[in-house]
Amino acid sequence: MITARGTDTKKPTVASYIPLKQANMSDIDDLLINRKAVTCRLLSFGFCKSEKGYIYATHLADGQLEMRVTITNDAKVSAEVSDISLKERYVLHRVPGASGAFVGKVREEYEQVLAAIANDCFEPDVFKSKCAKQIIRHVREKYRDEPQFLWKRTPQNAIFRRQDNAKWYAALLVIQKRKLGLNADGTVDIIDLRAKPEDIDALVDGKSYFPGYHMNKKHWITICLDGSVADEEIFQRIDESFALAKSSAGKYARASKTESKLESTV
Q: How many of the other CB atoms lie within 10 Å of CB of 56?
């Protein structure tokens, strides 16, 4: 992951170590948005437990620089790079417009470390409602499935699919309440599930149950995850949806047109 910076480059002088407040500080927040650290993964990655949280250190640029990543007990993440010989903080790699072979190499290695930490030590944390978290736990324990975030443009959309035929049986979304026809501002977690047409007709009430949001309304139903429907009832609907998603091997490869609509939601 860490490579040599090349023999034709020159290490920056002390003048290149500019004040930290001039550096671009948004990269970590952007990378870890809607994600949370998993303690056991941090330790496996190489983080060390400290009184205030977890610390990971590695070398950049052939050992000339040290990168230190800190995750505090209240989940704040920071990273800094220091020159080992000068004992000065180095931030040029985080300054927009800063260029040069050495700066470019440091920036590349720095971003590789952050990306590895994000991928190996963090998991998605998009859905904030207690009900959505319970659903994820139920599906994980019963079906061994994890939410799949398929679209970069809509990172708040996730789906669950059967492992035997790849058919979707649930979609978790965060949408504006008014998109459901509710007379209220703000967002709400919802779940789309397969259901029998006669069950959809009987359940839809415009308060807790709605016709499938951005799905085929004849075969999908939407439940508002605001606590108005009991967890056990939702789990039952998920199990029914899982069963309805079972299809013959010759059919599952044809993706539903309604399923593809989710890419443009929210």
A: 18
Q: Indicate whether 40 pLDDT > 50.
A: yes
The 8-class DSSP code of residue 212 comes to P
d(CA 234, CA 263): 24
The DSSP symbol for 148 reads B
Give per-residue pLDDT as tens, 106-136. Answer: 999 999 999 999 989 998 788 888 999 999 9
Least confident of 28-32, 143-147, 257-261: 257-261
Q: Within 175-255, where are the H helices?
A: 197-203, 231-244
How far from each other are the two terminal CA atoms of the chain, in whole angstroms? 37
Residue 7: the pLDDT is: 30
pTM given for the model: 0.62
Q: Is 167 exposed, middle or buried (0-12, 13-18, 19+ CB in 10 A)?
A: buried
Domain ranges of the chain: 14-124, 130-264
Q: Helices (H) and strands (E) in the chain — how many of each? A: 7, 12
CATH architecture under which domain 130-264 falls: Alpha-Beta Complex (3.90)
Percent helix, strand, coil in the chain, to 5, is 35, 25, 40
* 161-212 pLDDT per residue, tens: 999 999 999 999 999 999 988 888 999 999 999 999 999 999 999 999 999 9
Q: For residue 36, which phi and psi values (nearest 5 degrees)?
A: -130, 150
